[in-house]
Amino acid sequence: MTSPGDGTPVKPPPSFSPGAALASSKSRYTDGQEVTHSIDTELTEARSVSSPTAPLSATTAELPIRSASPQRSVRSSTPQLARSSLGSPFDGRFDGSEDIRSLIIRAFSPTVAVHASDDTDELVRNKGFKGGFRELVRPFGETVQGKVIIRDSVGSSRAWEDFGVRFVDLKGFGRSPANRDSGRDSPLAQTEEVLEKQLNSAEGPAGAVPTKDVLGFPATTPLCKLFLRQLLASTSVGPHETFGHPVASVITISSRNPAPLETLRQLYAESNTGDKRLPEWVNQEYLRYYVLIHDEERDDITESTKLYDQMKRHFGLHCHLLRLRSSQCVVTDDDSVQVPQCEWLSPHERLSGAGEAGMFTHPELLQTSSNAQTETLVDLGTDSTPYLFDSDVTAIKTFIRELIVQSVIPFMENRVAVWNDQVASRRRGISGRFMSMSRRWAGFGSSSRSGIGGSSGGGSGNYDPNQNFYGPDSPEAILRKMADFAVMLRDWKLSASTYEIIRSDFGNDKAWKYHAAAHEMCAVSTLLNPMAMSAKIKLESVDQMFETACYSYLTRCSDSTHALRCLALAVELLKSRGGSATESAARWAMRVMDFGLVGSVGQVLFMERVAACYASKTPAGGAKWGARRRKAGMWSIFAADQWLKLGKPNLASACVEEAERLYAEVLETDGVFPMPEMQAFVDNLRHAVKVEYLEARGFDARDESATHHPLDTEETSEKLEKIDKRNHRRSLIGLPGQLDAGNLKMTATARESGNSPNDDFERA
Amino acid sequence: MSYYFTILSPTDTPIFNIAFGTSKGGGDGIARFRFPDTAQYMNQFIIHSSLDIVEEAQWINGGMYLKHIDTYPPAAAYISAFLTPSGARFLLLHQPPQLPSGTSSGLGSSSLLGSSASTTRASSSSVAANPTSPQTEEAVRQFMNEVYESYVKTAMSPFYKQGMEIKSPVFRTKVTGAGKKWL
User: Fold this and answer.
1) Are B31 and B2 within 8 A, CB to CB?
2) SS3 of residue A67 by DSSP
3) How many CB pairs under 8 A join A and B?
4) C-alpha R_g of chain B
């Protein structure tokens, strides 16, 4: 098998010097300085976002001028599409929808199981990683250094910069608590809990933290992204989809091992037949990769090299010698590098590891939020964030790159080609169609199979209705796996067509979970495929697929986690499609609220999403009509109302601000609604937000002690105005008086820039 | 069904508002929206937001009556629109009664039998419980036409200037009458 990466040296090519890598994966590092570096790009990017969320600068007075240029938004929507179809998926990293797309794409990454010997884990534990080897490599696996070239089924190759894999522990695989779908432990409840925690921690003692970007409104709020990421990370491993099933398994020993080859054999046997065998619905044909960890400080390199050569002779090419130092690295060491934090922590891990470094992994949040959070980070950073030596980091990165580029991807490409050839093409051909048709009319086709086919009502008989899964060798399971591989390799054309083949089979077999998952992924891959979809009919079929998936998940399997994931994907992907798809995205978001799949925080988040969906609908062809500003504004106002009810005045004020901006274009006079009751409601809301915001910041204590109560706005509005002016005056003389939106931003910026050197100090 | 009817001037200012309920099928003609009484602003929000769609639909649809143009799913509110040549827009929000727990309507609080009887009666009338049915469209069209007639007469009054709020009690009675007759 010729891999595209065969010829390339192990080290990343020079064009991916650390600087370039940093800039490309900016959202992953919490570097304050970098924010300032990329301000220009981000500014331009933010302006060209197709939504009307042009950067909102200092004062709201400027609003109408800024957002009243539909032409700009029209222009921007075209390059976005063109860009995504042109190849480099990375250009638009900073603009909202591309960012979300990348997030979704990365959510479907291959899984690599880690099977380490005890001596390896002990070595790694000495380095300060309690979780063993997997914990050491996991954060690095989420982004592979440099470009990864993947060939699709038609043979054209494409480079990706944001490729990654998930490392999981083979020991705990598939043995996660089985019934977590209800009660407090369900992934959904946990996701909600994480959100609340994040909200509360962002609140901090100093009061409100503007979660929006410094430069104005990003198309997606960080909280929303956190929600989506949590949701995508929370789905448990099951038979009906193979994204969580290992594509490869890394078997690791260290140079301390007295009987290395025997241990390797034993580990292999354990994973194959022993008690660490994967559940029977997992296809056992995955790649084995052997790693020898050489302890630089205690062991002799010549011995290790000899052993490594021996390993190569025994196991072939899929071997790697990883040279690590065994002593623990501390911050004060010369070449210490902080270990990047995991991006894809499941809600469960996030909650249990709240005291550890896992909590504040969100670059967006770190970047944008101010001192409250950074302080927490400082606390965490000093004691529990592990550090590594620079040489170790380089070694691990090289190892992972080699693993992926030279072994995992060629293996997956090969499997897809083989299955495509052997299984899928048989189904695609005319005889395959006839076979599946005749099977449906029970009697003809089922004669070749055992009698089960007849009894299960014309099903193929490969589905085991008692245990609810297909055997891993049945054509259905293999096709599903092949399609999933294609998704992981980002060949969405192949995956969509494969899901298309199998989705009706699952329905015939009454394998409802498979049925739902295949429909979901079929729609998702159709939407992810940049080439497809121009006709409206296609959009309708996608809607139909989501509808079916959702119905199967909810009604037939009562699996709300997957249903919510499916709907959230529908919302985000349809929204990123633009045009009339945004309206159907908004409709799905409303469906989520209607189904009651999310808790109170989630409800508001989806309200914001509805607003964002409508806001991203741009007028057609330069005409003045066709936008959905009023709808977007309405939803923002409602979201603000809900945030206020949840006691988050900072978020509410951000929403009000957004609404004002959206309404600016459609209202005759700025901020004056033609309808009296609307006007009254919006005015009340604004006042309430102001009052609560001030209270949260402790202004009442300083200005006029105990003057107002947040609820009776009518009574306090006069006083408020007094405070209002006072604060304006204060803001002029430089104190943080943040009554209106603009000031809030300015101070945020100021604080941000004030903080960035601090960050640097921490990282250094 | 509950209705909220608004006439908007070309500059989006409301010049006439009325809320009423169905008089068909034993309805008493009093509006009972799904929002709590403190949230009546919702109607205006929904009407206002549907202007986006009106603006789009008026270029696509050639007729004066644009039919059902918009829906607000969370509250099951449906919007129908009618354009006049002078640029005024008639917007009718209609909302079917809440079936499972209509505590305020008094009908839903009775037994299942009672509520089902009321729905069958409602569906036998011209305006069915389904707001997108052809019968509803037709009834709304008739209503709009009748209101349009009285609107033209009112607007021709020498004391009325374009864009002014319509305060004429005669007009109000006529709209109420049309609502009773058709909806």
Assistant:
1) yes
2) helix
3) 59
4) 16
Q: What Å distances lie between residue B65 and A678, B47, B69, B126, CA to CA?
A: 26, 16, 10, 19
User: CA angle, A514 as apex, A513 and A516 as ends, to 5°?
Assistant: 65
Are B12 and A668 an interchain contact pair (Cβ–Cβ within 8 Å)? Answer: yes
Residue with the two structure tokens 């969580």: A244
Residue A75 CB contacts under 8 Å (≥ 6 apart), including other chains: A48
Q: How far is A577 from chain B (nearest CA, A)?
A: 20
The C-alpha angle A297, A300, A302, rounded to 5 degrees, equals 140
Interface membership of A567 toward B (CB under 8 Å): no
Distance of CA A563 to the CA centre of its chain: 17
B9-37 burial by CB neighbour count: b if 16+ within 10 A, else e?
Answer: beebebbbbbbbbbbbbebeeebbbbeee
pLDDT tens digits for range A289-337:
999 999 888 888 898 999 999 999 888 889 999 998 888 888 777 788 8
- The Cα A660–Cα A670 span in angstroms is 8
Chain B residue closest in CA terms to A682: B41
- Judge whether residue B150 has pLDDT over 90: yes
Q: What is the 3-state secondary structure (H, E, C) of A206-222?
A: CCCCCCCCCCCCCCCCH
Interchain contact, B49 vs A666, CB within 8 Å: no
- Own/partner long-range contacts of A40-46 (Cβ < 8 Å, ≥24 apart): A41/A94, A42/A94, A42/A213, A42/A215, A43/A215, A45/A92, A45/A94, A45/A95, A46/A94, A46/A95, A46/A213, A46/A215, A46/A216, A46/A217, A46/A218
* CA atoms A176, A179, A184, A189: torsion sign: positive
Please judge whether A666 and B46 are an interchain contact, meaning their C-beta atoms are less than 8 angstroms apart.
no
Question: Could you tell me which residue, A432 or A47, shows the higher pLDDT?
Answer: A432
Residue with tokens 């009618």: B82
Mean residue pLDDT of chain B comes to: 79
Give the separation between CA A144 and CA B107, rounded to whole angstroms.
64
The answer to whether the predicted template modeling score (pTM) of the entire model surpasses 0.95 is no
> Is pLDDT larger for residue B5 or for residue A49?
B5
Q: What is the pLDDT of residues B86-143, one digit of tens each?
A: 889 999 998 887 665 433 333 333 333 333 334 434 444 445 567 778 888 898 999 9
Question: Does A752 or B176 have the greater pLDDT score?
Answer: B176
Residue A62: per-residue pLDDT: 36
- Using DSSP's 3-state secondary structure scheme, residue B2 falls into strand
- In the DSSP assignment, the letter for residue A423 is I
Chain B environment of A624 (Cβ under 8 Å): 55
Domains of chain B are 2-182 (3.30.450.70)
| Burial degree of A274 (CB within 10 A; 0-12, 13-18, 19+) | exposed
Q: Which of A117, A119, A165, A161 is closest to A138 using CA atoms?
A: A165
Average pLDDT over residues B43-47: 89
Phi, psi for residue A181 in degrees, rounded to 5: -80, -5
How near does any CA of chain A get to the CA of B79, in Å? 14
Judge contact between B46 and B33, C-beta under 8 A: no
Residue ranges of domains in chain A = 111-216+243-402, 462-577
Instruction: Yes or no: say if A227 and A602 are a contact pair by the CB < 8 Å rule.
Output: yes
Q: Of the candidates A494, A497, A400, which has an alpha carbon nearest to the alpha carbon of residue A156? A: A494
Alpha carbons B48 and B42: distance in angstroms, whole number: 10
CATH entry 1.10.287 includes domain A462-577: no
| The token pair that represents A495 in the structure block | 């995956």
The helix/strand/coil state of A441 is coil
Cα-based distances in Å from A188 to A236, A360, A603: 11, 20, 13
First CA to last CA across chain A, in angstroms?
44
Q: What is the ipTM of this complex?
A: 0.84
